[in-house]
Amino acid sequence: MNRTTIIILDSVGVGALPDSKSYGDEGVNTLENIAKECGGINLPNLVELGLGNIDGIENIDKVSNPKGAYGKADEISKGKDTTTGHWEIVGLKIEEPFQTYPDGFPKHIIEKFEEKIGRKVLGNKVASGTEIIKELGEEHVKTGDPIVYTSADSVFQVAAHEDVISLEELYKICSIAREMLRGEDQVARVIARPFLGEVGNFTRTANRKDYSLKPFDKTVLDFAKEKGLDVIAVGKIEDIFDGQGVTEAAHTKSNMDGVDKTIEYLKGDSKGIIFTNLVDFDAKFGHRRNVEGYKEALEEFDKRMPEILESLKEDDLLIITADHGNDPTYKGTDHTREYIPILVYGKNVKSGVNLGIRKSFADIGATIADILDTKMPKNGESFKDIIL
Ligand SMILES: O=P(O)(O)O[C@H]1O[C@H](CO)[C@@H](O)[C@H]1O
Ligand SMILES: [Mn+2]
Ligand SMILES: [Mn+2]
Description:
The chain is an alpha/beta fold. The protein has helices spanning 30-37, 44-49, 82-89, 107-117, 129-143, 167-180, 220-226, 237-240, 255-267, 280-286, 291-310, 362-372, 384-387, and strands spanning 3-9, 69-73, 122-126, 147-150, 155-161, 189-196, 203-204, 209-212, 230-234, 248-250, 272-278, 316-321, 340-345, 354-358.
């Protein structure tokens, strides 16, 4: 096999891990709780691959002959954010959780930032991004002061109206923050959160941009690149890795745009890795606790599955998975620590194989390294031999 595609359904977790309680997450299960609360969910194509056959899944139909291999994976890293999840998938283990700022950023950080950008800041607290622009957007428009906020994740988010602070300036401001927030004042990501519209009707635009730390060690992406293979990043993958190990990138406007671009790449003749992140599940529905919207987004993705599968070449392997949970039926607006589903399909992949409960997300990266015959990442156990 010469090409593997990973599609991350951002935040589509499949149930609490044994240690989820210590993260404040009890009884969380993004996929199943959506199905339960909506009285069912219609995902015929994912079900056909074996989604409902995954150990422990109850509210999704099971099939007698799944077309794919199926399983779920535990997270060995400490954390439940996007960076941690994605980095572990490609072979890293984050032992020290990224620093978070539940009381906002300390004075020395804010003062230094204000001095460097030549503007004061508003907010500086934990908030939901859509709520904080409702609350402080008007003042921002009047004063020109950007809104800084964080969450349960290690993030320094800067929201600004595109007509008040140009995108170019916002990105510059975020680069300044990125340079500052290392070492003792570390954050995993600085995120530009531009918005548009009138007071009372602000909406965020697709010009969001993430500034991540570089992975602290080599991943299977680096090993594939070093071997001369293509590593194509679709959606925010390039940002999550700060470009490390990526040979080509396409940013996207929405889940469906991400699916379109993935299909285009599948039809092309690259060799190596196509790595796609579909973030709407998380950003538009999980954090917004919009259960019905989340369900519809899943069904919308499922409808595209036949097209994705038809675009696979003889020698392709497809893995559909997630990076953490974000149970929209759960309290708060943060991620939830959960198992990630693993669905594997390929014309040459054995059907109906139960991958069971994998010890780490990194088993995915190890399998890809094994299949592409690159160096093996430090973590993870390959399941190549049971699927081929
Ligand atoms: O509430 P919004 O702005 O969508 O922010 C969410 O998006 C961030 C990055 O994914 C998370 O940390 C969470 O805070
Ligand atoms: Mn995520
Ligand atoms: Mn998120």
